[in-house]
């Protein structure tokens, strides 16, 4: 019967038993600490990202708002559509519009520094239900033109620039040379969207938000209490379809997409995190199998002890309970040690600014994680304690007491089968982990060597934001960049410098085009990417010219003039969405090879024409090589390049300077910063990165997944090899007498060596065969591509899921891992086999 007194007796007995076997105790605790600690660390991430609700008021009522187009995927909202949704819906308590984060020049003490800013509707914080740490957030009316010069700061920005002083409230902060009043500071945990440093009200006038064809705004909504998300979705679908019929063509129907905000933020992380959790669970299983084998070996040596206790009145249940108590004690100790390692690992992850995971909630070892660790430790203790407990319960203790020492030490058939089964299981699990890691490593290598269409070596990129208040005219912006590029190209080691609106891999703007004579209906639903570039752009990135010519200064001059006229048309129009571009306002463009082959197959694209949604006619003057605009794993899309003056003609400008060097790219950064300050001391340089760093950023997900899974696979392999070594060493110890007899009868050392090695080889091959089945299931999951959550229409990936450029059943990976396991297994068997082959027959015969 269970009682506290009996349990305490079992605990004290277990402590004395462990103290007598410090080596066994240390190995078991360390093995379990590795498995439980890894599980705790990964669960803390899953708890923060997937399990916890978003840290907003009634976060289950918050939904992300997007819209469909004719092209696949979902898209941001247009200003007009959003305002109509907000006014006509019946199921939302409130909606909020906001922008993507973008760079701004800030100044608090005369020197300009860059910061990430998001413009929001005035009700943004109220809809989220997040109060400020200090001061207040925006109030109704502060998102009207002329009333929006107030800012809310992030905790990090406040701490860095104002030293956490409360006096910051009410002070003035210069943003792009315009004065803003600081009204509030958000709590340190608040991270939405992304890593925003400053929030300012968005001008919510219909004119500022643009027409119905301009998909550029992000939005979320709060569903009314008592209303389901399905009802809210149906409400907005009806409204969006009605607006499409009213303002668009019959073939251009847009529908609202309503997604739980948490799903939008965390959906893409779900599959990789669950795979990692499965991986660490497998590591824990290997650890359990190892400790179970240790416990079996130890319990075999304690058979006579158990028999003596039985004859003195201990029941069979009491003996089993003792074994289980000791195993839970071991797992609990391992959990404490593992928890320290997990706490350290989680702290390291939380401190990483570039961690590629949603972090609305902080990653930490909290109550839920502690409960998980306790639960895992108890479960693990019972799991690996079952084998020795089962062995004890099945023994005929009275017979064991009568038996000789040798008989006690000799394992019966079922004990040997159980130990062998545990080792086979370890090898099978290790194969699964190693194949998964191998596939990710091969994917990682393919991504590193993938051709993105540009020469990434010795290319530096820096951002520059020209405030509209100071640089309102095209001539002023042209003069600034002319000076900056001249100064930059004069820096020693700089070969060429150019200005652009977007960088490879980071995307830009896109839209639909119309090609005269094109009757293919599929082409009407293709989005064409476009960017604005200055002279030297193709040379800086090493993009080859395939046909025709590049854009000239005359093209740029005409594009600037045309854009100024078009801007005047839009500014004077009552409804910008109805503006039609006059036929005489045309422009030139260079396109990529994919666009040429898509719209003019088997033709010379140079000289061909197309028009965009506004009807502006564009003539193709050149064709260049393909560049990946939306990521390494994305396919190349049709793309057009326009003169940079076309973008400069509009209000404000945020662009990138691309610098090709013959020296280390970062070595010229300080000189570029100095040149910017010399031209305008109120400007800052944003996000200086080499092109190689940009590529690395786009590999962060794969890098982290590869590192973690490889680490877990290495742990699994180490534990499996130790387990196999332990079984073979124990086998040799148990069969020393038999080996001595065989050698006395004439067996050679090579015969003994071969016998032991064959045993280990059979176990390894059986483990590989069984592991291949579970491995195929894992790799299928790794190669599954999830859609519908990413938030952007894609043209499809070259790979799928977590893999890129490698098959989930890649024979090279499977064969290489199997060979590695065989080598490690043979190495693990070699030492016991060599020891067996050197047994002295005379010593072995006296072993009894």
Mind sketching the topology for me?
Elements: H1 4-20, H2 22-51, E1 62-68, E2 74-75, H3 79-88, E3 92-98, E4 102-107, E5 112-120, H4 124-128, E6 134-135, E7 150-153, H5 155-162, E8 172-175, E9 178-185, E10 198-201, H6 206-209, E11 218-223, H7 229-247, E12 256-260, H8 261-301, H9 303-311, H10 316-351, H11 367-394, H12 397-402, H13 405-409, H14 413-448, E13 459-466, H15 474-489, E14 494-500, E15 509-511, E16 513-514, E17 528-533, H16 537-541, E18 545-548, H17 553-572, E19 586-592, H18 593-599, E20 609-612, E21 617-624, E22 639-643, H19 644-648, E23 653-661, H20 669-679, E24 685-690, H21 691-697, H22 700-734, H23 736-744, H24 749-782, H25 811-837, H26 841-845
Parallel strand pairs: 5-10, 7-9, 17-22, 19-21
Antiparallel strand pairs: 1-2, 1-11, 1-12, 3-11, 4-5, 4-8, 6-9, 7-10, 8-9, 13-23, 13-24, 14-23, 15-17, 16-20, 18-21, 19-22, 20-21
Helix pairs in contact: 1-10, 2-8, 2-10, 2-11, 3-7, 8-11, 8-14, 8-22, 10-11, 14-22, 14-24, 14-25, 15-20, 22-25, 24-25
């Amino acid at each position: 019967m269970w009682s506290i007194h009996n349990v305490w007796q079992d605990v004290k007995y277990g402590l004395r038993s462990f103290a007598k076997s410090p080596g066994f105790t240390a190995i078991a605790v360390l093995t379990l600490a590795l498995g439980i600690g890894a599980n705790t660390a990964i669960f803390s991430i899953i708890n923060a990202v997937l399990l916890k609700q978003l840290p907003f008021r009634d976060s289950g009522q918050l939904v992300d708002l997007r819209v469909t187009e004719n092209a696949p995927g979902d898209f941001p909202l247009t200003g007009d559509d959003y305002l109509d949704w907000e006014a006509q819906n019946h199921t939302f308590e409130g909606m909020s519009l906001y922008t993507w984060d973008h760079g701004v020049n800030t100044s608090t003490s005369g020197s300009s520094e860059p910061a990430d800013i998001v413009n929001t509707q005035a009700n943004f914080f109220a809809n989220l239900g997040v109060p400020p740490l200090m001061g207040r957030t925006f109030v109704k009316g502060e998102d009207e033109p002329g009333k929006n010069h107030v800012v809310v700061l992030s905790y990090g920005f406040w701490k860095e620039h104002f030293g956490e002083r409360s006096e910051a409230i009410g002070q003035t902060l210069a943003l792009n040379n315009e004065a803003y009043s600081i009204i509030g500071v958000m709590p340190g945990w608040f991270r939405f969207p992304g890593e925003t440093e400053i929030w300012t009200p968005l001008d919510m006038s219909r004119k500022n938000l643009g027409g119905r064809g301009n998909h550029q705004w992000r939005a979320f909504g709060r569903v009314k209490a008592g209303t389901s998300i399905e009802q809210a979705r149906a409400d907005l679908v009806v409204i969006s379809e009605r607006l499409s019929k009213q303002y668009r063509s019959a073939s251009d129907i847009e529908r609202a997409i309503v997604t739980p905000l948490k799903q939008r933020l965390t959906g893409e992380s779900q599959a990789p995190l669950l795979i990692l959790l499965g991986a660490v669970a497998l590591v824990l299983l290997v650890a359990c199998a190892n400790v179970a084998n240790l416990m079996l070996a130890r319990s075999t040596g304690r058979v006579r002890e158990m028999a003596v206790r039985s004859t003195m009145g201990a029941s069979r249940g009491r003996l089993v309970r003792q074994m289980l108590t000791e195993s839970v004690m071991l797992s609990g100790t391992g959990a404490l040690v593992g928890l320290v390692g997990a706490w350290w690992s989680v702290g390291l992850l939380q401190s990483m600014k570039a961690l590629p995971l949603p972090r609305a909630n902080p990653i930490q070892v909290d109550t839920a994680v502690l409960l998980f660790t306790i639960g895992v430790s108890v479960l693990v203790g019972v799991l690996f304690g079952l084998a020795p407990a089962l062995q004890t319960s099945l023994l005929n203790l009275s017979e064991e007491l009568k038996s000789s020492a040798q008989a006690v030490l000799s394992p019966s058939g079922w004990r040997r089968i159980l130990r062998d089964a545990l080792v086979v299981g370890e090898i099978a699990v290790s194969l699964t982990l190693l194949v998964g890691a191998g596939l990710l490593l091969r994917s990682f290598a393919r991504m590193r060597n993938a051709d993105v269409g540009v020469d990434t070596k010795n290319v530096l990129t820096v951002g520059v934001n020209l405030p509209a208040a100071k640089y309102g005219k095209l001539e002023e912006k042209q003069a600034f960049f002319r000076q900056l590029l001249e100064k930059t190209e004069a820096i020693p080691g700089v070969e060429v410098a150019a200005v652009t609106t977007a960088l490879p891999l980071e995307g830009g703007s896109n839209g639909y085009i119309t090609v005269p004579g094109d009757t293919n209906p599929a082409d009407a639903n293709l989005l064409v990417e476009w960017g604005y570039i200055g002279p030297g752009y193709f040379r800086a990135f090493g993009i080859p010219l395939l046909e025709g010519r590049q854009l000239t200064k005359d093209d740029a001059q005409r594009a600037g003039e045309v854009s100024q006229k078009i801007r005047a048309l839009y500014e004077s129009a009552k409804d910008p969405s109805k503006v039609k571009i006059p036929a005489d306002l045309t422009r030139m463009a260079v396109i990529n090879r994919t666009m040429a082959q898509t719209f003019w197959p088997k033709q010379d694209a140079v000289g061909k024409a197309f028009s965009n949604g506004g009807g502006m006619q564009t003539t193709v003057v050149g064709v260049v090589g393909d560049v990946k605009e939306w990521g390494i794993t994305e396919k190349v899309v049709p793309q057009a390049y326009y003169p940079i003056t076309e973008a400069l003609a509009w209000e404000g400008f945020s662009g990138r300077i691309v610098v090709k060097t013959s020296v280390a790219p970062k070595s010229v950064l300080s000189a570029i910063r100095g040149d910017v300050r010399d031209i305008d001391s109120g400007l800052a340089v944003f996000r200086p990165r080499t092109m190689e760093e940009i590529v690395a950023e786009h590999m962060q997900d794969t890098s982290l997944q590869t590192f973690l899974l490889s680490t877990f696979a290495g742990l699994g392999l180490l534990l499996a090899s130790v387990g196999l070594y332990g079984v073979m060493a124990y086998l040799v110890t148990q069969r020393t007498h038999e080996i001595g007899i065989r050698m006395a009868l004439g067996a050679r050392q090579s015969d003994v060596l071969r016998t032991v090695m064959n045993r280990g080889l059979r176990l390894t091959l059986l483990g590989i065969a069984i592991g291949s089945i579970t491995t195929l299931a894992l790799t299928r999951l790794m190669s599954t591509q999830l859609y519908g959550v990413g938030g952007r229409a894609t043209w499809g990936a070259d790979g799928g899921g977590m893999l890129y450029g490698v098959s989930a059943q890649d024979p090279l990976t499977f064969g290489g891992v199997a060979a590695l396991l065989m080598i490690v297994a043979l190495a693990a068997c070699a030492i016991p086999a060599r020891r067996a082959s050197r047994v002295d027959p005379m010593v072995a015969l006296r072993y009894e």
